[in-house]
Structure formats: structure tokens, C-alpha cells
Write a structure and sequence with these properties.
Strand content: 15-25%
Order of helices and strands: EEH
Structural class: alpha+beta
Radius of gyration: 16 Å
Number of helices: 1
Shape: elongated
Length: 49
């Protein structure tokens, strides 16, 4: 019998609380990381590119 260890890329998936799950995403604005809503027109525009 072989034991295989699986490592998740995102451990937060185990607790269902990954950053950005609340409808937000991290964006760089003037060199700083800021939170922006995923429904923001700017985020939608760059996401469509």
C-alpha cells in the first residue's frame, strides 16, 4: 500500500476562506496593494483585456 501526500496550492480552500472570496480582489494602485470590488468597472475592463 502506497501513501500519497497531497499539498494544496491554496491551503485556505480547506476552511473556505480564501482572500478575495468576499467579492474583492487585490490591485496595485500607485505602487500599493489595495482592495477593490470585483464589480468595479475598472476591474471588469482590465479583466476583459
Amino acid at each position: 500500500m502506497r501513501v500519497v501526500f497531497v499539498s494544496l496550492v491554496k491551503p485556505c480552500l480547506l476552511i473556505f476562506a480564501c482572500p478575495g472570496d468576499g467579492g474583492e480582489t487585490a490591485v496595485l494602485y500607485r505602487g500599493r496593494a489595495e482592495r477593490a470590488g470585483k464589480d468595479s468597472p475598472l476591474i471588469k475592463f482590465y479583466g476583459a483585456l
